[in-house]
Fold this sequence. Notes:
Layout: E1 14-16, E2 22-24, H1 25-31, E3 34-39, H2 45-63, E4 67-72, E5 92-94, H3 99-103, E6 107-111, E7 117-119, E8 125-127, E9 129-133, E10 136-140, E11 146-151, H4 161-176
Parallel strand pairs: 3-4, 4-5
Antiparallel strand pairs: 1-2, 3-10, 6-9, 7-8, 10-11
Amino acid sequence: xxxxxxxxxAPRFRLRDQHGRGVTLSELLxxxxxxLRFCRNENxxxxxxxxxxxxxxxxxxxxxxxxxxxIAVEPFxxxxxxxxxxxxxxxxxxxxxxxxxxxxxxxxQVPAPNGAEISDTNRNLTRTHEIVSVPATYVIDxxxxxxxxxxxxxxxxxxxxxxxxxxxxCLRKRKKS
Length: 177
């Protein structure tokens, strides 16, 4: 995997949010910096905590003139979270094909669950794979460059909200000078 790093230009994208509206990175950057969170949306306890935490972070990010968006590579199902997708205060973008996550260098192949196998035309059994995304957080400045990149290869932790807010504050001060 070759993940996108700080200082590199963020790949552009166009995806639909939980309300069916098209969202582009270019349009978001017109209004300010963007906090882009890629999540796996596995509907685990960790994901429940993450979405609750992001709901809290959303207000602080907006106060600093930035936008928080979440890209879910897996189909987003908010019901285990006890909510409707429309109730989240931030856009949740669906990237079912994984192409946006791939453009950020966040995808890889893993064996399909339950050891799924398929037979090719010669009746050879081959193990199928599925594409998964590594969780990551990017802070993207208004020019479209990655200011901060936090990629969680082990899927164990999230970027500290204080660090996200500090990065946004620094970008805001830089913009004023």
